[in-house]
Specification:
Length: 71
Amino acid sequence: MAGRSHRPGAGREADLRRLRDLLRSAMAAGYDLQRAGVDALYAALYAVREARYADPALRFRADARIVDWSS
């Protein structure tokens, strides 16, 4: 068994390392396509003036309010 470690779990570690490298390369390969899709979506949304927010960083504030419903 030339080149193989006799340490328990060494084969599993190598498999996990290969899997991690494959996933990393697949994600890197798909990033450009994903980014182009997101950019196209936002370009289409921002082309319609009514679809834009007045403040692109609208913030939700859950302030306590007492409303008189009796009137």
